[in-house]
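TA notes, week 10

Several of you asked for a full example with nothing omitted. So below is the full record: structure tokens for the whole chain, then the designed sequence directly under it. When grading your own attempts, check the secondary structure regions first.
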């Protein structure tokens, strides 16, 4: 019993009815559809929209339950961020909050479960338990930011079509 008590004192370990339970994890699954924003299919769409290859590889990383993939552009970058909110209800609520906070948005019908694009080209889409934000604001001035974000979002939705 002393061993169980000592183990139960460790952070993240729960003692339930005398049984030791595995630590509850807030981390995303090892393979999540969120990581597909860094897939070659999305890179290909970004390059096709730009009309040229990217100068380097895209880089993705988790921070909590948010996955961010940054695509290098000559003189700038494109950032795709996916919040994995675990449930469709939480995702809908987060999407509604973001949508209400965005002035001058244009609703995009037929893209995911819901989507809009802001005046600066940022595109936000809801798909199942995910909220995708594609931010082209750091792209070079010569790039049509709204078109770039739309192309990347379409590719992500293509990746997610069969997986979520």
């Amino acid at each position: 019993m002393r061993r169980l008590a000592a183990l139960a004192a460790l952070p993240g370990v729960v003692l339930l009815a005398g049984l030791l339970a595995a630590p509850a994890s807030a981390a995303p699954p090892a393979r999540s559809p969120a990581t597909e924003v860094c897939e070659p299919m999305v890179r290909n769409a970004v390059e096709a929209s730009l009309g040229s290859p990217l100068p380097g590889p895209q880089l993705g990383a988790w921070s909590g339950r948010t996955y961010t993939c940054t695509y290098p552009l000559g003189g700038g970058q494109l950032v795709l961020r996916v919040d994995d909110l675990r449930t469709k209800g939480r995702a809908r609520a987060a999407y509604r909050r973001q949508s209400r906070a965005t002035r001058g948005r244009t609703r995009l019908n037929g893209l995911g479960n819901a989507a809009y694009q802001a005046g600066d080209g940022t595109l936000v889409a809801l798909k199942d338990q995910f909220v995708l934000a594609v931010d082209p604001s750091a792209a070079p001035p010569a790039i049509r930011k709204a078109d770039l974000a739309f192309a990347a979002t379409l590719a992500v939705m293509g990746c997610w079509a069969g997986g979520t």
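The first strand starts at residue 14 and ends at 16. Use that as a sanity check on your answer.
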